[in-house]
């Protein structure tokens, strides 16, 4: 089926770039200093550009009416994911808890989900996916980033003062500022000057290449043995099986339309996003653990995603 071949092609591209990153690290072409530079380049330029670019979609009253169900569903699901983060990962120390929490609210739906849902459901599937991803992108760069600030909050003296400092640090994060800019562009439908829009698009297009190279570099610098860590397996079960199953049952119980249900279930079963590893590397969480989760969930999604596509 063409939609599965598209997904396999994207997965193959990601794995190839990952392998190149590992190779460059083993050959000491990407050093520890180079990893730090790549991390800052992604967080302060490429990811903000990608975030702004993702909001540059047509959005008006008619589109809102036709996509209202999927938008409401996406908001409800983000709340549900927040509950999972609070209930399932509370016993973990910061280094792994932040990774599992962020990896739950933020999947790889942006890279893999859009072409897959377009192949499955056509142009309307792509439109629904674009709208579905709006709440995820807002949450991943607001509450999601705050998960990596938990350690700062715990270590800082003073109650309100430390929380204000962490809140200020979170709100001034370049990727969160990019959400505000992107939302303004989407709601006002403001058109950027041609040269600026093209520069933004070109920078945004670097995202997958640079992200996967960096993740490969992190993997190449870490001891990933054993890959089948118990916590990695637990995360994959939650991300790839539990979440899409709950979404499917909930949508059927609420009599959500078949198309919206199909898009929501497929996107709920996407693997961990590469951004998780990048943020873990930047903010002192367990980046090796994040790399394991990203790699294993991506490989397993080659099996689980077609199954969910058949179910819906």
From TrEMBL:
Alphabetized InterPro entries for the sequence: Mem_transp_PIN-like, Na+/solute_symporter_sf
Subcellular location(s) per record: Cell membrane
Protein name per its UniProtKB record: AEC family transporter
Pfam families membership: Mem_trans (PF03547)
rRNA processing as UniProt keyword: no
Spans traversing the lipid bilayer: 6-24, 70-90, 111-134, 176-196, 232-251
Record key words, sorted: Cell membrane, Membrane, Transmembrane, Transmembrane helix, Transport
Organism per entry: Faecalibacterium butyricigenerans
Membrane topology: Multi-pass membrane protein
Family: Belongs to the auxin efflux carrier (TC 2.A.69) family.
Keyword Nuclease: no
């Amino acid at each position: 089926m063409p939609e599965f071949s598209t997904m396999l092609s994207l997965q193959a591209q990601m794995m190839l770039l990952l392998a190149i990153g590992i190779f460059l690290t083993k050959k000491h072409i990407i050093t520890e200093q180079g990893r730090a530079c790549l991390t800052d380049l992604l967080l302060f330029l490429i990811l903000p550009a990608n975030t702004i670019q993702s909001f540059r979609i047509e959005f008006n009253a008619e589109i809102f009416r036709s996509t209202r169900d999927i938008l409401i569903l996406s908001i409800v699901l983000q709340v549900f994911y927040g509950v999972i983060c609070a209930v399932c990962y509370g016993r973990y120390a910061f280094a792994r808890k932040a990774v599992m929490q962020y990896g739950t609210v933020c999947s790889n739906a942006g890279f893999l989900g859009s072409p897959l849902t377009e192949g499955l459901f056509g142009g309307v599937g792509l439109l629904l996916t674009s709208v579905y991803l709006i709440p995820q992108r807002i949450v991943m760069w607001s509450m999601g980033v705050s998960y990596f600030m938990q350690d700062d909050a715990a270590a800082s003296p003073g109650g309100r003062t430390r929380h204000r400092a962490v809140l200020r640090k979170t709100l001034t994060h370049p990727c969160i500022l990019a959400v505000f800019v992107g939302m303004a562009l989407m709601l006002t439908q403001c058109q950027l000057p041609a040269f600026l829009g093209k520069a933004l698009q070109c920078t945004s297009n670097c995202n997958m290449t640079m992200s996967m190279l960096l993740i490969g570099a992190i993997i190449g610098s870490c001891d990933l043995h054993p890959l089948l860590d118990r916590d990695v397996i637990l995360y994959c079960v939650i991300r790839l099986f539990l979440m899409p199953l709950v979404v499917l049952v909930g949508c059927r119980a609420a009599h959500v339309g078949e198309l919206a249900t199909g898009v929501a279930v497929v996107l709920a079963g996407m693997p961990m996003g590469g951004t998780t590893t990048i943020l873990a590397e930047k903010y002192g969480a367990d980046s090796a653990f994040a790399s394991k989760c990203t790699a294993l969930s991506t490989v397993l999604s080659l099996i689980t995603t077609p199954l969910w596509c058949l179910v819906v």
